[in-house]
From TrEMBL:
Keywords: Glycosyltransferase, Signal, Transferase
UniProt-listed Enzyme Commission number(s): 2.4.1.-
Cell membrane among keywords: no
Cross-referenced Pfam families: UDPGT (PF00201)
Lineage: Eukaryota, Viridiplantae, Streptophyta, Embryophyta, Tracheophyta
Family: Belongs to the UDP-glycosyltransferase family.
Record GO terms (molecular function): quercetin 3-O-glucosyltransferase activity; quercetin 7-O-glucosyltransferase activity
Protein name: Glycosyltransferase
Amino acid sequence: WPLQGHINCMLHLTAALLDAGFRVTFLHTEHNLSRLARAALPPGLRLLSVPDGLPDDHPRSVRSLKELTESMFTTGSAAYRALLLSLRSDSDAPPLTCVIADGIMPFAVDIAEELGVPALAFRTASACSYLAYLSVPTLVELGEVPFPADDPVRGVPGMEGFLRRRDLPRGVGRSEDGAFDPMLLAIAEGIAHAGKARALILNTAASMEGPALARIAPHMRDLFAIGPLHAEHDAAASLWSEDDSCMAWLDGHGDRSVVYVSLGSLAVISHEQFTEFLAGLVATGYAFLWVLRPDMVKTTGSVLREAVKEAGSKARVVEWAPQRGVLRHRAVGCFLTHGGWNSTLEAAAEGVPMVCWPFFADQQINSRFVGAVWRTGLDMKDLCNRAIVQGKVREAMESGELRGRAHAMAQQLKLDVAVGGSSSSDLERLVGFIRELRSSIVISSKYASVTSLFLHHH
């Protein structure tokens, strides 16, 4: 799926498959492939692309996701079918063993299977959010619509004790009370469709999300929990140019003395919200590194620069940061994040406490798990004023309990991805699963070929 968060996760999977000895083709949209020319991609990875059906000057922003979706499901799917047919008929290339398709694109699974190519689904979000999406028919029946309210939710099995309506996945706009966002309904339908794939792959660990995995498994033909993939199979491909100079800036600060702030690749905030965030961060007294994309705040760049300049030498702003390196840096004491799954996993793997301000989709439920289940951070959803920002950030920077639990989770995840760990064992099982698919196909090539469908954009 053509979004930065999906690109990150999918590239880590390609690195794991390449390490296992497979040949891998990584499928982008043409728009994204042109933006990723500078990426540090794994050696041996073949790149192909299809059009997403939108003009070059289309913003492809969070507020045009409906247009992107409609175009991908029409123009994109037709181009994908044509490409898959040409790959199957290419006698000079190794035969296709399987397709691994982003779990948000059911057409990619269906078309592959129609053409005789086994298809697996890879969902790049958390297991807890996946289970919430699977539960959408029950939520609709119960009238438990995503809404900023504290009413308990009964419609997601296993989460009755802590999930609230404000924690359910949401669209970009606010849902009206009593109405369910059509976009969320479409996503939920597509996610449930993964049950028709040969298997579902999730970038998570049983130690983090065992109960949710157990409830998802009966709906799937097979299930693999192989994360966090970046911890053992790192790869990088950013749609923005990373500002590495912020690493030297971090070097000049003491241990756990800097707040890292990034709301991801899609979130947009108002000028008023920007002002409250900035005032709250300044009031903490801590230095902060803030990722502010050019398209993130609804105001002019000069206004932003002047506002940050007034914050003084403790503020450092970049358009995009090498996030995994930042989170590993000794100077970072907490992470103010949107709670996207990649960011959540990256902070968890480094033992960095989080303050979550989710924007939409799965981020809502991820932040609830951070605050109420794992208790490795604080959930600040639906709140944005300087006093709350100041209080939550200070607590995350100074709480020994939060830091201790975050550190314990990081240690457990290291065990999960190490040889013999649950995620490592499931990855081995996945490799074996793909090799069995290969053995069921008459091939003359020495190597298996895995086509991984990661259709991306920003």
